[in-house]
Amino acid sequence: ELANTKEDLSEQQTMREKLETENEAKDRLIKEMDEKLQALTTVKIQNNSLRAEIERINELREQSKARFEIEKDCLQKELSVTQKRVNDLKELLELKENVNK
Q1: Residue 101 gets which letter from DSSP?
Q2: Considering Cα of 91, then 92, then 93, then 95, what sign does the dihedral take?
Q3: Neighbour-count burial of 36, counting CB atoms closer than 10 A to its CB (0-12 exposed, 13-18 middle, 19+ buried)
Q4: Quick one: which H or E segment has residue 29?
Q5: pTM to 2 decimals?
Q6: pLDDT tens digits, one per residue of 7-27
Q7: What is the sign of the dihedral through the CA atoms of 12, 18, 24 and 27?
Q8: CA separation for the pair 60, 40 (Å, rounded)
Q9: pLDDT tens digit string along 51-69?
């Protein structure tokens, strides 16, 4: 019976060591998973930040396009007015030249 008890104790010790080894492996795995989760969280935060920055850039691009169109329209109107003035001045010059003849 003493031999059985020693064998049982030895089996229990072996089982305990096996469980401790498994627990250590599980702890390492949990730690690795926590680190990966932290890294993924960091990447997600960076992605969200980049998305927000891209949105801001796109909004600025749209504002720039709108300003460009407004400025283009204004310049076209100014050009049209200037061309009309040039034409009017040419006509006046022709009239003046005809009067002087």
Answers
A1: -
A2: positive
A3: exposed
A4: helix 2-100
A5: 0.57
A6: 888 999 999 999 999 999 999
A7: negative
A8: 30
A9: 999 999 999 999 999 999 9
